[in-house]
Amino acid sequence: MSGVGKACQGRPVTEDQLAVLAQQVEETVRQNGVSQIEAHDIGLAILEPLRELDQIAYLRFASVYSSFDTLEDFERAIGELRQESASK
Q: Which pTM was predicted?
């Protein structure tokens, strides 16, 4: 959650919202039914709830956990967010 906090730095995200996000991710991970889970998999589980919470924080976090290597990776993610926003 410290990585999520860093991604949310300077964004209009409250500590309560981060706590709810942590609960959502924990529930998702527990539903998988495995006794051990890799830290990277937890990072991936954070992506969707974070995307719904704050798109900029999502891009920051996703750039690490989705291994954005190029400008095109960012452009693709931004394009997806724009499409999602337009369809709402």
A: 0.85
